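Troubleshooting entry. The earlier prediction with succinic acid gave an output that would not parse, so I re-checked the input for stray whitespace and re-submitted. Clean input:
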Amino acid sequence: MSDIAIKPVSGGVGVEVANVNIDETLSEGQFQFIQKAFVDNGLVFLRDQDITPEQHIDFAERWGDINVNRFFPKLDGYEKIASVTKEKDQITNIGGGWHTDHSYDQIPAMGSILLARETPTVGGDTLFACMYKAYESLSPGLKTTLEGMKAVHSSRHIFGDQSAYRDEMDGVFENADKATQDAVHPVIITHPESGRKALYVNPAFTLHFEGWRAAESKPLLDYLYQHATLMEHTTRFKWAEGSIAIWDNRCTWHYALNDYHGVRREMHRITLEGSPLN
Ligand code: SIN
């Protein structure tokens, strides 16, 4: 195999790291190369990874502790791997809207490692958006306004027992009784590793700005969401079996497109433990 290499995939966000296998042959130097690509870009893709669930877990544990998502179904026999699957006859998918994982936790997941096991020939792509670019391209005035603000995030309306989405998913999600707590995070965070500022609100889990009513927050949040998802800030990833995306939840959003009805799609996700956001 030739030398490990990095290739940007779009002007918006994301790079592909090529010529590497993330099984036990992955050297420390190669691992650090992938980690640096992750910190520098917030989103890394790998192709053609022929790995077992055990190797997926071993690779994830090189990054740190695994944070087991309490709502997603688990892969049979693997508590640490979430099964992000849409069956042929299922209508609603998991992750079919812009979000960043676990912002409803006070210590949100740092990143996620998603591995494609079974993919539609056409459709089922994932969109990603760069929250560094979302922040950096705001006006100086709006940046200053947002700088001191915080927002409240929650899982109740998505994973709680009153959730219409949970009903549509027809028993797929677990632990509705654990969708109880809310979390408060700065609207603009400083990324703990890169030191760059990023917009940290998202359409799925952010309820309102702290100290503002939901109705007062909505117009500004709506503006931020449409700004964050300008095409220039995004990329679209076409999966194949063995493709992997490693995304940084502190500086990206993602959106699993639901455009492949009647076809099965199976993805395995491991979520990595994070740290408090400032
Ligand atoms: C997710 O939101 O973690 C799922 C992304 C995908 O299935 O493409």
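This one parsed fine. The mean pLDDT is 97.
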